[in-house]
Amino acid sequence: MTDTPTSAPARPHRLNLALLVALAALAATGWQWYDTRQLLQTAELDLARKVATADGMSQSAKAAQAQTRQTLDQLSARLAQTETRVNESAGQYATLQSMYLELTRNREDWQQAEVEHALTIASQQLALAGNVKAAISGLEAIDARLASIDKPQYIALRRAISADLIQLKALPHIDRVGLAVRLDQLMAGIDHLPLMVDAHRIETTRPVAGGKPAATPAAAPALETLPPWQQFGRELWQGFSSLIRIQRMDKPDALLLTPEQRFFLRENLKLRLLDARLALLANEGSTYHADLTAAADYARRYFDTQTPATAAWLKQVEDLANSPVTLEPPELTATLKAAQALNQAPPVAPATGGQS
């Protein structure tokens, strides 16, 4: 009976302790729940912020990707253009290289072609125009060109050129320019030559001094010694003889020229001399002499050959007609054959240095 009162007060003390422990555990649990909730909210906010940031970064990445793709497209287009230009440049380079190789391939062929062309021109000058001076100048230029090249394969060609130069320089010199100047002077003097019809008109219309024919000193006393009726008859006859004149004319058509025909006569004579001048420069001797002969015939037929001017003019025409204007220049056959043989010869292989 004595143990019951002592155990009753100890039980409430244990309950209070358990209650305190429970309250402490509950408080700890609540605090933990609150802290966990705060952590969750913070995590949610961080997650939302990170998601928003990631979304923005995704949009920026998409924009950057689009810009990058556009840049790649532009770079691809530029690359294609660059490749096209590179291909064009490569083609141009290949063309230039081919042209360069063509120009530098066997330089002697070009030199020989140049020499043959110059020889052809000199031969044409000699054969067509008879221009010996031009042919000599051309051959001397070719010989100087070959001398500057100084190749043994040109010895035969230079020997032929030297032989032709000796023959050309031995030919007599014809001053075609001087002859052409003399023809020009003759053409200019045609307008001043008197025609036969003009000379005849001046002679027939020349008045007699005092209206009477001039009497010789021996005839004057004889007329005074005649009877008056004979003096009257003599004066009457002299008056009629001064009005009527009978003269023999071997070329009557020369006196029937109209003013227009006289103009064309002088122009035709100038054309004859002009044709002779052209024939002189063209080395056509037969045409030259024929035109000068025809011009002299015109002058003798229609112009007054008794005047000093016409006589001197005809003398110059005859001198020009007797001047030699044609030559028989040698043909450059040997030189041309030597040039052709040089072109047909096999090319000389270029010397190559030994390899070390």
The description of the largest β-sheet is: none
Quickly count the helices: 13
What is the approximate shape? elongated
Structural class: mainly alpha
Element order, helices and strands?
A: HHHHHHHHHHHHH
Distance between the termini: 138 Å
* Assembly form of the protein: single chain
Q: Determine the mean pLDDT.
A: 77
pLDDT < 50 stretches? 202-221, 347-356
Strand content: under 5%
Rg, nearest Å: 64 Å
DSSP summary, beta strand count = 0
Q: Estimate the helix proportion, in percent.
A: over 70%
Secondary-structure topology with pairs:
Blueprint: H1 4-7, H2 10-104, H3 107-128, H4 132-149, H5 155-169, H6 176-189, H7 196-204, H8 219-224, H9 228-243, H10 259-281, H11 285-302, H12 308-322, H13 333-344
Keywords: Coiled coil, Methyltransferase, Transferase
Coiled coil: 65-92
Organism: Laribacter hongkongensis
Describe the structure.
Pfam families: HemX (PF04375). Its EC number is 2.1.1.107. Keywords: Coiled coil, Methyltransferase, Transferase. Residues 65-92 form a coiled coil. This is Uroporphyrinogen-III C-methyltransferase. This protein is mostly helical and 356 residues long. Among the domains are: 107-172 and 331-343; 176-208 and 225-322, no CATH class. It is built from 13 helices and no strands. It has helices spanning 4-7, 10-104, 107-128, 132-149, 155-169, 176-189, 196-204, 219-224, 228-243, 259-281, 285-302, 308-322, 333-344. Helix 4 (132-149) packs antiparallel against helix 5 (155-169), helix 5 (155-169) packs antiparallel against helix 13 and helix 11 (285-302) runs antiparallel to helix 12 (308-322). The longest helix is centred in the N-terminal third of the chain and has 95 residues, at 10-104. It is elongated, with a radius of gyration of 64 Å. The termini are far apart.
